[in-house]
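Protein of interest.
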Amino acid sequence: MEHSQPEKDISLIKNLMEKSSKFSNLSGYAIATTGLLALLGAVFIYFDLGISISEKHISYAELINQKGNANSTYTKIKLLIIIASLILLSSLLILYVTAKLKSERQDINLFNSSFSRALKSLFIPVISGGVFCSFLILHKMYGLVAPATLIFYGLGLISASKYSYNELELLGYLELLLGTIASYYMGSGLLFWMIGFGIGHIVLGVFIHYKYDKK
């Protein structure tokens, strides 16, 4: 009994040090929302819901198999880039606003050292993957773009998990696995992308909300 109080104090100090060294201000619902946006965008692209930005329109499968002419292929690529950019910008805005609000409620500075370390660990692989994917598009290797984004994003999540939620590491390994499998089944790459970026984020977001946000 004499040692119980010092042990509790040491445990409390360790928990406080761990929290201060990790960025944990992301909202679970915000993560789930980004997954939903990714899922909706991918569904729109994959199933060709009848909305086209020009008359020269080809399906995702035709793009992968390079069955379209130069103009229709360019149109489809432009559509993919527009949708991907909108999803990325919207997701970043949602994550930033919700993280800022959560930080203010907890009276914590959002732009602290743990935030910068997590951001750096995530975006170095992600930006590298973006550059790599641009070369894949340049060389008309469209079927490898979706798998490559999964792989590089997975590497970023694994790296960032050291400075944020531990659960990010599990999602990172899932993204790596999906990206590797999608590299073999290139025609189904976008379906794996939907599972990784869409369903993966939704499940992770709900889990983080109930494990951390509701405390």
About this structure: Residues 70-105 form the longest helix (36 residues). Helices lie at 4-20, 28-47, 60-64, 70-105, 113-138, 145-160, 167-184, 189-213.
